[in-house]
């Protein structure tokens, strides 16, 4: 169904009126009972938003038609429930799946009229709650008032992310690949962190229930002190029973993950290869404005920010007369930092950018301190708010820790595994303190739902003060790039050509396609000389090219050429040319080798590039996307050279064998 929607919107991109009709129908059908389960209206809204961002549709009209469709769809479901309240339980699928209506009844009973708004964002209940509202006799005026409000919230929530995506893709195609990388990286971090926090809570709840049952069975089979302690802990009347089990599981899970990372760091491959690839990738996409953005995230984990949180939380605990909680927390911070220093001295792991710091970096004490401060703050807040606020607190804390870790890895202060190691080790101590606190104080403190907002405003204020007082805190490191190593032409064609990499290596360290050529040229020379031979430059990232991935009749040349990674570095130069048929194309990707030819005539040094040539064949399958099958391109061999470089000002300096691969050495004249 989603494939059909993507294909339809792609075909209608040039006809805004028809596309808006598709948006209306998708929003309408998604809200209809039974039918809405099979209609991916959210996907259609996102794709329509992407077309808005790509300047193919008008945002105001997309909003209007989506909102009208959603209101009418919920209205029809409400009418069905009101009109056939006594007979609807006999209609499929409610007749064979009565639990669907039961879930809607429970949700409506718990949240009342607000359930009409909440259900808009919950897939299984989206089209059921309006039916239940009609069956239970909710007043029409009240229902339609809330129905309109829910549609006004639902449409922007599903359309605007697509608009941002489409606009960023369009801007990336006009500006640079780096912009797209940074935008997608930030969006991906926020999205994945939120999903991680939600999944962790669901996993902890499920595991806590299972562990509680097993412990209860085990305790009933025992006698003595262990039986009394376990049964007391699992007593349903004990308010902290679930929290104790969840904290215990978090201790075990975090400790296990830390030792997995520790084993990988000590053992080396493949974790070290992953660290190097991630570092090289982030270094390759660094820009001055990217440094500023990431620096703002780094301020969340600065000593000033963390100290301000510690002081405020300590004062808060003292005011509530929770002396032991303050003591546990301070002991946790101190002991964990001592343990981390001891591990660092034992392992002696240097940071990727030794100019930034001379400290040992595994595990990262910076990420560990941030995890302890924000983790313990999240624990204190979660005990004082409701379920929805608790989810917000968990998601925000995870996002903060992740972006703090990203800033450190981005600026080369520590490796990715150092950040994960620091976070997991400190999570053990946070869970232990939470476990002790819950055990000694099982009753939840009085509700203070406004506290998360206050703490968020406090953190924002501290960050802004630091930026105003010390503007240099933004982009603390310039986007340094290693200088090219200068060599003579004789040295390159002699010994150096045999030491350059023969193959591309992906992020995981797996060997990719061979580097079949080495080319000494400026980037502008490469562009102009290839253009004369029919090569088209660029990744061609646009809303239309991305939608071509799902088009059933797209040509191979219409699909975007995505950069590939070599040790984490994306290929900065990418070219394509038509093949023998509409479904074929040749692709050339080039990376800088780190060397440059220094001519004796005083001319500027010329970078040496390594490149891979591949032949891509478009294939179709049961999946809803076009797939390009990649094969090596053999015309890079000397006998086929004329077909792709003949007539250009390029000298062929010879060939060298590199692990069975014939590598051609070229130089632009």
TrEMBL record:
<keyword id="KW-0812">Transmembrane</keyword>
<feature type="transmembrane region" description="Helical">
    <location>
        <begin position="171"/>
        <end position="191"/>
    </location>
</feature>
<keyword id="KW-1133">Transmembrane helix</keyword>
<dbReference type="InterPro" id="IPR032818">
    <property type="entry name" value="DedA-like"/>
</dbReference>
<feature type="transmembrane region" description="Helical">
    <location>
        <begin position="17"/>
        <end position="39"/>
    </location>
</feature>
<dbReference type="InterPro" id="IPR000326">
    <property type="entry name" value="PAP2/HPO"/>
</dbReference>
<feature type="transmembrane region" description="Helical">
    <location>
        <begin position="419"/>
        <end position="438"/>
    </location>
</feature>
<protein>
    <recommendedName>
        <fullName>Phosphatidic acid phosphatase type 2/haloperoxidase domain-containing protein</fullName>
    </recommendedName>
</protein>
<keyword id="KW-1003">Cell membrane</keyword>
<feature type="transmembrane region" description="Helical">
    <location>
        <begin position="292"/>
        <end position="319"/>
    </location>
</feature>
<dbReference type="Pfam" id="PF09335">
    <property type="entry name" value="VTT_dom"/>
</dbReference>
<feature type="transmembrane region" description="Helical">
    <location>
        <begin position="326"/>
        <end position="347"/>
    </location>
</feature>
<feature type="transmembrane region" description="Helical">
    <location>
        <begin position="450"/>
        <end position="469"/>
    </location>
</feature>
<comment type="similarity">
    <text>Belongs to the DedA family.</text>
</comment>
<dbReference type="Pfam" id="PF01569">
    <property type="entry name" value="PAP2"/>
</dbReference>
<feature type="transmembrane region" description="Helical">
    <location>
        <begin position="46"/>
        <end position="72"/>
    </location>
</feature>
<dbReference type="InterPro" id="IPR032816">
    <property type="entry name" value="VTT_dom"/>
</dbReference>
<keyword id="KW-0472">Membrane</keyword>
<feature type="transmembrane region" description="Helical">
    <location>
        <begin position="367"/>
        <end position="385"/>
    </location>
</feature>
<feature type="transmembrane region" description="Helical">
    <location>
        <begin position="143"/>
        <end position="165"/>
    </location>
</feature>
<feature type="domain" description="Phosphatidic acid phosphatase type 2/haloperoxidase">
    <location>
        <begin position="326"/>
        <end position="434"/>
    </location>
</feature>
<feature type="transmembrane region" description="Helical">
    <location>
        <begin position="392"/>
        <end position="413"/>
    </location>
</feature>
<feature type="transmembrane region" description="Helical">
    <location>
        <begin position="240"/>
        <end position="262"/>
    </location>
</feature>
<dbReference type="Pfam" id="PF14067">
    <property type="entry name" value="LssY_C"/>
</dbReference>
<dbReference type="InterPro" id="IPR025902">
    <property type="entry name" value="LssY-like-C_dom"/>
</dbReference>
<dbReference type="InterPro" id="IPR036938">
    <property type="entry name" value="PAP2/HPO_sf"/>
</dbReference>
């Amino acid at each position: 169904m989603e494939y059909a929607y993507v294909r339809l919107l792609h075909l209608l991109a040039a006809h805004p009126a028809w596309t808006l009709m598709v948006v209306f129908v998708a929003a309408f059908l998604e809200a209809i009972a039974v039918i809405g389960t099979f209609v991916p209206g959210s996907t259609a809204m996102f794709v329509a938003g992407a077309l808005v961002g790509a300047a193919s549709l008008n945002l105001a009209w997309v909003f209007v038609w989506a909102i009208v469709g959603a209101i009418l769809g919920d209205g029809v479901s409400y009418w069905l429930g009101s009109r056939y309240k006594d007979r609807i339980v006999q209609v499929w699928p409610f007749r064979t799946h009565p639990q669907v209506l039961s879930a809607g009844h429970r949700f409506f009973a718990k949240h009342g009229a607000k359930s009409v708004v909440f259900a808009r964002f919950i897939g299984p209940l989206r089209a059921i709650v309006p039916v239940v509202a009609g069956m239970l006799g909710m007043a029409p005026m009240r229902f339609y008032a809330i129905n309109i409000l829910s549609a006004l919230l639902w449409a922007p929530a599903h359309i605007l992310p697509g608009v941002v995506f489409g606009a960023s893709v369009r801007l990336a195609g006009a500006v640079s690949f780096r912009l797209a990388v940074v935008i997608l990286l930030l969006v991906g971090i926020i999205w994945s962190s939120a999903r991680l926090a939600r999944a962790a809570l669901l996993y902890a709840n499920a595991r806590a229930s299972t562990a509680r049952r097993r412990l209860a069975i085990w305790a009933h089979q025992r006698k003595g002190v262990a039986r009394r302690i376990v049964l007391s802990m699992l007593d349903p009347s004990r308010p902290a029973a679930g929290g104790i089990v969840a904290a215990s599981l978090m201790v075990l899970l975090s400790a296990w993950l830390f030792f997995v990372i520790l084993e990988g760091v000590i053992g080396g491959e493949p974790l070290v290869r992953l660290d190097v690839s991630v570092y090289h990738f982030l270094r390759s996409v660094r820009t001055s404005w990217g440094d500023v953005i990431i620096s703002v995230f780094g301020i969340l984990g600065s000593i000033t920010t963390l100290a301000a949180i510690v002081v405020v939380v300590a004062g808060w605990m003292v005011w509530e007369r929770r002396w032991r909680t303050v003591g546990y927390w301070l002991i946790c911070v101190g002991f964990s930092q001592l343990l981390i220093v001891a591990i660092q001295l034992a392992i002696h792991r240097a940071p990727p950018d030794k100019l930034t710091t001379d400290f040992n970096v595994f595990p990262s004490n910076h990420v560990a301190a941030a995890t302890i401060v924000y983790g313990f703050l999240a624990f204190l807040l979660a005990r004082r708010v409701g379920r929805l606020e608790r989810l917000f607190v968990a998601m925000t804390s995870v996002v903060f820790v992740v972006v703090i870790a990203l800033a450190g890895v981005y600026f080369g202060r520590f490796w990715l595994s150092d950040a994960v190691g620091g976070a997991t080790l400190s999570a053990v101590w946070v869970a232990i303190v939470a476990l002790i606190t819950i055990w000694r104080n099982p009753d939840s403190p009085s509700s203070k739902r406004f506290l998360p907002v206050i703490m968020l405003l406090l953190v924002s204020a501290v960050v802004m003060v630091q930026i105003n007082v010390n503007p240099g805190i933004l982009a603390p490191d310039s986007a340094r790039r290693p200088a090219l190593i200068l060599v003579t032409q004789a040295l390159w064609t002699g010994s150096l050509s045999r030491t350059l990499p023969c193959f591309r290596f992906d992020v995981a360290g797996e060997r990719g396609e061979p580097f079949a050529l080495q080319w000494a040229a400026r980037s502008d020379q490469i562009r102009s000389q290839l253009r004369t031979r029919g090569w088209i430059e660029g990744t061609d990232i646009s809303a239309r090219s991305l939608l071509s991935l799902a088009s059933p009749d797209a040509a191979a040349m219409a699909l975007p050429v995505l950069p590939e990674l070599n040790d984490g570095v994306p290929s900065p130069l990418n070219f394509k040319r038509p093949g023998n048929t509409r479904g074929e194309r040749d692709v050339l990707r080039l990376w800088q080798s780190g060397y440059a030819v220094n001519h004796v005539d005083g001319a500027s040094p010329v970078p040496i590039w390594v490149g891979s040539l591949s032949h891509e064949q478009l294939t179709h399958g049961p999946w809803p996307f076009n797939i390009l099958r990649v094969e090596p391109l053999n015309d890079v061999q000397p006998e086929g050279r004329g077909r792709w470089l003949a007539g250009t000002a390029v000298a062929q300096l010879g060939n060298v064998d590199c692990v069975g691969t014939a590598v051609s050495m070229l130089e632009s004249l």
